[in-house]
Fold:
Amino acid sequence: MSNCVFITGATSGFGLASARLFAQHGWKLILTGRRLQRLAQLADELAEHCEVHYASLDVRDSQQVSALIAALPQGFKQIDALINNAGLALGTDPCDKANLDDWHTMIDTNVTGLVNVTHALLPILTEQKVASVINLASIAANWPYPGSHVYGASKAFVAQFSRNLRCDLVGSGVRVTSLEPGLSESEFSLVRFAGDQQKYDQLYGDSNALQPEDIANIIYWLVSQPAHININSLEVMPSSQAWNNFNVVKHSN
Structure:
């Protein structure tokens, strides 16, 4: 019987790249996202490699999450890996100029949505001899930077929630990893910049940023580890990125 992976946010970025990589290795795919047409196109693309089930899903809606999982076809009811990839950042303004609706959307998606999906799938995951939960956090979970405010805080939740899950699931066969990428080039940043292509190009031009395929390779490596190995957290940056000095603001008297 083929292994089965459940991927949120499968229509772009890390989720899309992961779907393609897991398909190449013959995994069954449960693909979710809010853009149904993209999911259908992806399912058609990958159908020659593996079995695919897809469904539109807003992870923020706990009832929708539960209904989707309850209605999974028979061949997709055994799930061996969960990739909690659905998430977003909105805006780069400082906190005093940030939009409150953007803050709520980030919390509802990055925190509430991830919790909704994880809680609904844990009864299935714990039935497996070996299973994996890969939670997409960020270096923003560990390192502050201007304009990160609620986004960084939401990813810090993801990182700590992952560690706490590990405590509760120890001995169950369910491994949990907080995966924390740095500068990564994907549609994620275009959403954050409200579609500003020039701003996107300025950030990524000549930066040699991480690509979605890089993160997908890491995710597949994580779930492919022997059953007795759990990678608790993994922070990864492109070699072109590192930390800078602390900011010091000087005032003249």
About this structure: The longest helix spans residues 100-125.
